[in-house]
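[step 3/7] inverse_fold.run input=structure_tokens len=497
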């Protein structure tokens, strides 16, 4: 009798081997198919379907070639996300912090200051704000639209800046988008705003030497920066000649004897920060580690065989897995709380400064009314200017200081110190002029009360804005529609191969 083999004794072994082989072959087939499919997707992804002109402002035209990027960009129209301190929902900061009305007395921000809703609403929001009622320069349009590079190319940069804001309204109608950051021929990142290029040149640098990773921040730095309107031509200028920090920029403004306005109560020569996001970021650990703005606010995303940049620009807290967790291995809740802990501390110091500054402006007004001299008040006004500038350098930046928490807290600490020094000097002046201290403060507990205190004619401003929307804006839209109806769209024949 012959000895039975193991397969004869256990016939199921052969079936098991057969089934495993089938599964392996099947999986290899799926893998090969996936590779072929993804390779095909990758090839099709870069297939242009329509030619994009050099100065094409319409984002939807770009979207025909890049539907994934465009679809994610359109999601910026969603304003439902809200974090503890920020988000995309509209926040009326004057209503929330009425002290700001007093701090900006004599300046348009005392009328209206709201949380921006994002790029998708840039045109709507600049038309809506009460800050654009009185004559404004064309410079105010500079970062609001994909139409800006086209118009600058047509009429010249300097002419664009010095034109009245209202004269450019029919030309500036497409909100921020593709044209602002991309070359239509190559899709490479490019700089379309002269302010950034000129700032680099004054620093002895060539922006064309920037790496791709650096460009993923610099395209943001075209607009998310501190700037001012220089000279009678209101030429948009970045005050970076001495450096990016609050102290360096203050030194630049002092050297050029520049002030945005004279405060209506204290008479201090004031500076207004815009949104120095890039400058604050440059002082932080993320910039030091080579992390770009886009890494956090526009992270890469995969779909099939494609890797593309998610253009749903917004808070990383709305996409922690795609942004923060690429580098940080903690849980979403842990990372979110880490951000809130830092923002809470910055917000706490901000409120100290705001209350101090509102009070010091009122005390300065009282001192002037009591007969204080220019000689007595000059050092006080300088301290007020320095304190409010530092507060604004942090407050005007997006993110509640999270781009560089350590620097934000330092700058706010110096702001508190300077506002307190101003109050000490004012106490001496008030005492000298027989004014009992502490002075009795007006009721500025609400936005309306604060605006009444600084004599803002809010009803008249609202009537003027209503008239603007009824009579001017419709004409802008009509003219823009007529112009864009003549734009030619050139389709590209797609190869069958």
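[step 3/7] decode complete -> sequence:
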């Amino acid at each position: 009798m012959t000895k039975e083999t193991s397969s004869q004794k256990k016939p199921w072994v052969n079936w098991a081997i057969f089934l495993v082989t089938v599964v392996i072959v099947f999986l290899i087939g799926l893998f090969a198919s996936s590779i072929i499919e993804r390779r095909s997707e990758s090839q099709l992804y870069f297939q242009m379907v329509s030619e994009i002109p050099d100065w094409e402002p319409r984002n939807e035209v770009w979207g025909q070639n890049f539907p994934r990027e465009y679809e994610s960009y359109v999601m910026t129209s969603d304003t439902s996300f809200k974090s503890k301190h920020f988000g995309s929902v509209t926040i009326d900061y004057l209503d929330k912090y009425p002290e700001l009305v007093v701090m900006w007395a004599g300046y348009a921000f005392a009328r209206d200051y709201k949380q921006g809703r994002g790029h998708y609403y840039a045109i709507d929001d600049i038309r809506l704000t009460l800050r654009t009622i009185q004559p404004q320069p064309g410079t105010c349009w500079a970062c609001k639209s994909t139409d800006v590079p086209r118009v600058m190319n047509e009429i010249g940069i300097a002419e664009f800046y010095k034109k009245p804001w209202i004269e450019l309204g029919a030309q500036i109608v497409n909100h921020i988008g593709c044209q602002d950051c991309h070359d239509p021929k190559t899709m490479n990142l490019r700089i379309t705003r002269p302010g950034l290029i000129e700032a680099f040149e004054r620093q002895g640098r060539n922006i064309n030497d920037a790496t791709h990773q650096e460009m993923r921040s610099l395209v943001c730095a075209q607009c998310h920066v501190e700037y001012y309107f220089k000279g009678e031509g209101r030429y948009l200028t970045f005050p970076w000649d001495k450096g990016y920090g609050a102290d360096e920029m203050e030194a630049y403004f002092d050297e050029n004897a520049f002030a945005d306005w004279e405060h209506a109560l204290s008479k201090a020569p004031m500076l207004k920060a815009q949104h120095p996001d890039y400058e604050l970021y440059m002082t932080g650990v993320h910039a030091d580690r080579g992390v770009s703005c886009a890494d956090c606010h526009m992270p890469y995303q995969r779909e099939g065989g494609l890797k593309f940049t998610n253009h749903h620009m917004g808070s990383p807290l709305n996409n922690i897995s795609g942004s923060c967790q690429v580098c940080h291995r903690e849980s979403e809740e842990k990372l979110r709380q880490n951000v809130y802990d830092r923002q809470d501390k910055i917000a706490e110091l901000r409120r100290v400064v705001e209350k101090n500054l509102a009070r010091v402006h009122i005390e300065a007004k009282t001192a002037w009314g009591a007969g204080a001299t220019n000689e007595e008040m000059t050092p006080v006004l300088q301290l007020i200017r320095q304190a409010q500038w530092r507060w604004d350098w942090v407050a005007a930046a997006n993110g509640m200081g999270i781009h560089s928490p350590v620097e934000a807290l330092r700058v706010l600490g110096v702001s508190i110190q300077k506002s307190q020094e101003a109050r000490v000097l004012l106490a001496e002046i008030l005492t000298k002029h027989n004014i009992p201290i502490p002075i009795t403060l007006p009721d500025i507990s609400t936005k309306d009360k604060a605006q009444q205190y600084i004599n803002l004619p809010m009803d008249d401003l609202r009537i003027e804005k209503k008239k603007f929307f009824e009579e001017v804006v419709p004409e802008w839209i009509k003219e823009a529609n007529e112009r864009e109806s003549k734009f030619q769209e050139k389709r590209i024949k797609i190869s069958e191969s």
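[step 4/7] annotate
The beta strands are 50-51, 228-230, 235-237, 261-262, 269-270, 300-303, 306-309, 490-491.
The first helix runs from residue 6 to 9.
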